[in-house]
Amino acid sequence: SKQRSLFLGIERKSKNMTNQFRVLIGFENTKLSWDGIAFENIDNRRNRISTNTADLFTDNFLQQIYSLNTMFTFRNFHLRNVSYLVLGSGYYEVKKLGRDFYTYNLDKYDIYTDLQEKSLTTDLLRRKWIKNNYYGLIPTLTWDKNIIRFDLGAEIRFYSGDHFGEVKDFSDPALISDLGEGWYRYYRYVGRKNSITGFAHLAWSPDNAPFVIMADIQTQNHYWNLKQDVIVHGEGHKLQADWNFINPRLGMVVHMGDSLFWFINYGKAQKEPADNQIINADDVWSEPILAAAEVINDWEMGINITFGKGHGSINYYRINYLNEQLKNIDVKQEVEYEYYAADSTIHQGVEWEFSHVFNSRLSLEANGALQMNNYTNGNSLPNSPASLFNLILNYSFHPDLQFMAHLKTIGQTYIDDLNREEAMIKPYSLMDLGARLRWNDLELTLKINNIFNRLYSTYGYGYEANGFQSFYWPGATRNAYLSIMYKL
Asked: Which end of the chain is least crowded, N or C, by CB within 10 Å?
């Protein structure tokens, strides 16, 4: 991966107002392999890193972010606003071998039947482009006085995305004659979504009361449309939909002394479908389908405690999820997913954290989670680890020399709906070590990750083809990171 970036920030302050203008521009060019490593190779150190496709895949993207942040204070009122513009442009390129005319809409002059198009094949170079932009503003007004705080705000956003695919370098001479040697556009569609969101937040803490009550309400209005160009067999679908949501939240924090408090919270959130959940508009043969919004209802309850030089907390959550959009790797189209909906799922678990400072040299941090993310039939959701655990030890040999050790453990992870044990990613643990040295104005940081060079996988997927075939994305083996900083 080759990456370049530029950041610029300018700030102006007066007595009651602050303005910040920020620019962030980044470009990346990445060579990558999309396909996972087959089950029989994932534990072989040589085979898990060998691939004959890495040079055939490349991703290029340029993004520009401009924002103006304004903050104004007058007595008990605070006005904040963010105005932003985001521009993006890039493509994903891959060499395709033996592809049929039918899939890539190559029968420009409608010479062949559909059956003939499916039997005619060619090699080709394909690019899928996206040129998108969105802009908007987020104003928020806050009134804060003693026992009450009230926030009122909105977001207005306008989005446009131009998607198109191009092919060239055909191995079939007849195609070169018909379509030329330049790029041939075989699909194009433009998606637009304008969103208006309003929100209000109230926090109330009566005098001498040991509690704080918080209430929120959010309204969301999304206006979406998609227009597909008519290109040869492309039908030129014109689609539109509106989604309107109301999302409430209510919570309470109760203080039971200076070192102990507990909280309870309920919230609801909804999300409109993504474009490719409605239509695969880069497939000229795709037809639109109905897609429902995702809805979650979340209940949480927890407790926090402080004791001496230590701190601990534990939190239980339960999320009832309707129409959850799950995805699996599309084995026919790299960098794409196949989406499928689960009518009802449950995400629940316990999260905890603990920290303690033993003395000026030694401190310890730990956190973890037990997760039960299931379908209603009891099966675990794919690629959802059963547990997470982190243990971090910091030790200072000297004020200018610190040492860090980080142990993390990931529980078992099923990769398919049926929870096949033979395809499961087994639990694994990784150890990272690091050190920081300061010498006058020079600072060196060295970190060695996966110090024991453990083999592990970060993601898995599978499909039925002469039995169940499973594939995995390998995690990084031992690697080192060195940072050098000098203060002028």
From this structure: C
Q: Is the pTM of this model over 0.90?
A: no
Task: Determine phi and psi for 330, rounding to 5 degrees.
Answer: -85, 110
**Residue type present at position 35:** D
CA gap 461, 305 in Å, rounded: 41
**Amino acid sitting at position 30:** T
Beta-bridged to residue 71, according to DSSP, are 18, 80
Element (H, E) at 45: none
For 130-161, how does the pLDDT look when each residue is reduced to its tens digit (9 = 90+)?
A: 999 999 999 999 999 889 999 999 999 999 99
pLDDT of residue 54: 47
Contact present, 403 and 451 (Cβ < 8 Å): no
Task: Give CA–CA dist 15/236, Å, rounded.
Answer: 56
Residue for token pair 């049929």:
100
> Residue 229 and residue 91: Cα distance in Å, rounded?
19
- Which H helix or E strand runs over 172? none
Contacts of 304 (CB under 8 A, 6+ apart): 260, 261, 262, 263, 311, 312, 313
Residue type, 441: D
Sequential DSSP letters for 100-143: ETTTTT--TT--S-HHHHHH-EEEEEEEEEEEEEEEEEEEEEEE
Count Cβ neighbours within 10 Å for each residue of 55-84 and write b for 16 or more, e otherwise: ebbbbbeebbebbebbbeeeeeebbbbbeb
- The residues with which 323 forms a beta bridge, in sequence order, are none
Give dist(CA 224, CA 111) in Å, integer.
36
